[in-house]
Amino acid sequence: MSVKEKVLEIIKSAGNPVSAGEVEKLSGLDRKEIDKAFKELKQENAIVSPIRCKWEAAQ
Q1: With CB atoms counted within 10 Å of each terminal CB, which end of the chain scores lower, N or C?
Q2: Residue 39 CB coordination number (10 Å)
Q3: Is residue 57 a contact partner of residue 15, using CB atoms and an 8 Å limit?
Q4: Could you tell me if 34 and 41 are in contact, meaning their C-beta atoms sit under 8 angstroms apart?
Q5: Which pairs from 11-15 meet CB under 8 Å and 24+ separation?
Q6: Is pLDDT above 90 for 59?
Q7: Are 33 and 3 in contact (CB under 8 A)?
Q8: What CA–CA distances, in Å, run from 35 to 27, 30, 43, 50?
Q9: Are 11 and 44 in contact (CB under 8 A)?
Q10: 3-class secondary-structure state, position 19
C-alpha cells in the first residue's frame, strides 16, 4: 500500500475532517510524506476541505 493510499484510508476511517498533524499521529508516517500525499490527493480531487486546514474524503 502506498503512502497516498494509506493517508486516504486514514482520512476515510476518521469519520470527521482531519488535519495533516492528526493523520501523522494516527499513522506514524513522516510529515513530509503526508504533505506530499495530501498534495497529490488534492490534485486528484480525492479529498476536500470543509473546514480550513481540515480534510475529508470527497463524496
Answers
A1: C
A2: 11
A3: no
A4: no
A5: 11/47, 11/55, 11/56, 11/57, 12/57, 14/56
A6: no
A7: yes
A8: 13, 9, 12, 18
A9: no
A10: coil
